[in-house]
Amino acid sequence: MTATIAALSSGAGKAGVAVVRLSGPAVGAALRQIAGGAPTPRMAALRRLRGAAGEEIDRALVLFLPGPASFTGEDVAEFHVHGGRAVIAALIDTLTAIPGIRLAEPGEFTRRAVENGKLDLTAAEGIADLVEAETAGQRRQALRQAGGALERAASAWRAELTRALALLEAEIDFPDEEDVPALFAVATATATRLVGEVEAALAGAARGERLREGARIVIAGPPNAGKSTLLNALARRDVAIVSAIPGTTRDTIEVHLDLDGYPATLIDTAGLRQTEDPVEAIGVARALDRAGSADLVVWLSPADAPADPPDLAVPLLRVATKRDRIDSPPQRCDLAISALTGAGLETLTDRLAQAARAALEGGEAALVTRARHRRELEAMAVHLGRVAAADAATPVEFAAEDLRLAVRAIGRLTGSVDIDEIYDVIFRQFCIGK
Ligand SMILES: Nc1nc2c(c(=O)[nH]1)N(C=O)[C@@H](CNc1ccc(C(=O)N[C@@H](CCC(=O)O)C(=O)O)cc1)CN2
Ligand SMILES: Nc1nc2c(ncn2[C@@H]2O[C@H](COP(=O)(O)OP(=O)(O)OP(=O)(O)O)[C@@H](O)[C@H]2O)c(=O)[nH]1
Ligand SMILES: [Mg+2]
């Protein structure tokens, strides 16, 4: 029998109110045992909750949402209790002591919603992104996906492909009864149109993935330029080790920033120099690699010892550091800062926000927000491209197989092909209680 799952769905730690959720066939029994019976469906009721020995745990608002009209599609109960650690622990302990009830795994409530047909996989990913969203732009994109934007596009594609496939299969099963060139024409026309739509969706993919993950801004420069000092100043905490010894930072260090509503990942790197030290050399190689794929490289070099950046095919902002060390305006830079006095830091933050905006804004809202979506749509485009290019010499079976493989890619995208390993990877990333 399906296990009934329980978890704290609100944030961990002390809070005014905490929400504990329960989903599965044992919900009715649990409500009878601890809340004196199930309240009227979908109506909040104030109840005394009792532990196994009959002792009172809390007075709480209780909700009963009978399946299938619930978030998971199963019977669901919610306990809105006082958010103290001992209250939550007593309630969870009492619930999980009831036969058939266990703690939920990360994302398991949402996984059940998908398995019961309440959401497709892309909408579930949208919910995960909504929980993770740190900026308004990320929230909007996640909400759109959770509302089924990609799901609707995918199911429209699937319906058209299935229709075209049915025509070709009729031809394979009953050769000579139909006019083959006419059937082929329908299949190639459908494939040609859908390739266009899939490619339009893919065109926004880079932006969609960027918005989800944030613009990538890499701090690079010679050793001792003040890179880690700047990272700490912008992050407003001591993330990276700072010292007067050149070659202090070896690995890349990332922090997430909200730049005027635009999410960004700021990456500190090892100082660039020729080195005999094999570990430092790996750090230098990593620094160059990150810089090469950044949306912006902030090239730092000391005002009293300016250095030129290597050739990079990405936008560059040249910043002179340690402005406090020289009197005359620094050379060969776009702006100058001093972590000591704070001079120039506000201007720099504005420039970073501009760069993040340039990397993330523009165009329509993206349908594709993850590499996983991109992979499946690219696979679709390859198969549809072959069908679109088919001619009289192409065997009908080949075109049909390509249409089938395109449909399969859509199935992997939306989760309608039941593929456990895809589910496991995706739902592992959720929080517990979601
Ligand atoms: N207290 C609480 N707040 C919450 C949730 C929750 O589970 N509990 N949610 C959870 O993530 C989100 C809201 N999402 C929800 C989505 C569907 C249903 C639901 O009951 N759907 C039924 C009935 C729909 C209807 O009445 O219109 C259904 O789909 O059949 C509930 C919550 C955010 N806020
Ligand atoms: N006077 C002055 N010193 C600074 C300033 N910023 C950083 N420093 C000092 O410069 C030294 C190097 O700073 P780091 O931030 O560790 O330099 P880095 O670029 O990360 O160096 P590596 O990790 O070795 O590549 C430290 O002693 C800092 O205190 C500044 O604005 N003014
Ligand atoms: Mg450093």
Structure description:
The chain is of the alpha/beta class and 434 residues long. The protein folds into three domains: 4-104, Probable tRNA modification gtpase trme, domain 1 (Gyrase A, domain 2, 2-Layer Sandwich), CATH 3.30.1360.120; 122-204 and 368-427, Four Helix Bundle (Hemerythrin (Met), subunit A); 215-360, Rossmann fold (3-Layer(aba) Sandwich). The protein is 45% helix and 18% strand. The chain has 14 helices and twelve strands. The strands form two sheets. It has a six-stranded mixed sheet, covered by helices on one side. Strands 8-9-7-10-11-12 form a six-stranded mixed sheet, sandwiched between helices. A hairpin with a 2-residue loop joins β8 and β9 (262-268). α4 runs antiparallel to α5 (136-146) and α6 packs antiparallel against α13 (396-414). The protein is flat and about 75 Å long. The chain starts with a strand and ends in a 6-residue tail after the last helix. The mean pLDDT is 91. Bound molecules: ligand FFO, guanosine-5'-triphosphate and magnesium ion. The site of the ligand Nc1nc2c(c(=O)[nH]1)N(C=O)[C@@H](CNc1ccc(C(=O)N[C@@H](CCC(=O)O)C(=O)O)cc1)CN2 has 7 residues, from loops.
